[in-house]
Specification:
It contains three helices and six strands, in the order ββααββββα. It is of the alpha+beta class. A hairpin with a 5-residue loop joins strand 1 and strand 2. The longest helix is centred in the first third of the chain and has 22 residues. The termini are far apart.
Length: 193
């Protein structure tokens, strides 16, 4: 546990290990991941960063980079949403454990020449994030844009009630994230200019 300056404590339990087998594309037993889950996960990570900065700044007068580091955890929320909306989240798989549910996927990186990032999330039964990891540079912190993209995909999957379907949404063409159709009024050919 890390005490975040009297405002609560954040659990840094990294003893959870992800299973090697039993993964399925069926997301029927996915916990209720809500926007609150995403926001709270990133808020807790920023508290950890703030606690780490306060410990490191004892006897140090410079705090110019501290604001940048503290708020960089929230960049992932915005960029992750753009990744999700752009279809970067692929091959979502899940395994249900005794205490936790584990979800993994590939997220296409922003640079096309890089390999897809392997992103993993451990979820509590109430849909809150216990732990998140990614193979990207910022992935060990658990608050990179790829983690946010996966969480947004799960949130939208739950919100639209797609858990009852047999296959995961990444196994078929996108149905819940379609662009709007433009309403065009028909005119007679003679009236067109």
């Amino acid at each position: 546990m890390v005490n975040a300056g009297g405002s609560g404590s954040v659990d840094l339990d990294l003893t959870v290990s992800f299973p090697n087998d039993g993964w399925t594309t069926s997301l029927k037993k996915l916990p209720d991941v809500r926007f609150q889950s995403i926001y709270q996960h990133f808020m807790e990570k920023s508290l950890v960063v703030a606690a780490r900065m306060s410990l490191a700044s004892v006897g140090d007068d410079s705090d110019a980079s501290s604001d940048t580091e503290l708020f960089s955890t929230f960049k992932g929320i915005d960029k992750g949403y753009n990744f999700f909306r752009s279809g970067h989240v692929q091959q979502i798989e899940m395994v249900e454990g005794e205490e936790f549910s584990f979800v993994r996927c590939n997220v296409l990186p922003s640079m096309k020449k890089c390999a897809p990032c392997k992103t993993k999330v451990c979820l509590l039964p109430n849909g809150m994030v216990k732990m998140a990891l990614c193979t990207c540079t910022a992935g060990l912190s658990g608050c990179c844009n790829h983690v946010a993209a996966l969480l947004y995909a799960l949130e939208e999957f739950v919100r639209f009630g797609l858990r009852d379907e047999e296959e995961s949404p990444t196994s078929r063409l996108c149905r819940w994230n379609r662009p709007r159709l433009k309403k065009v009024k028909l005119k007679k050919l003679l009236m067109c200019s």
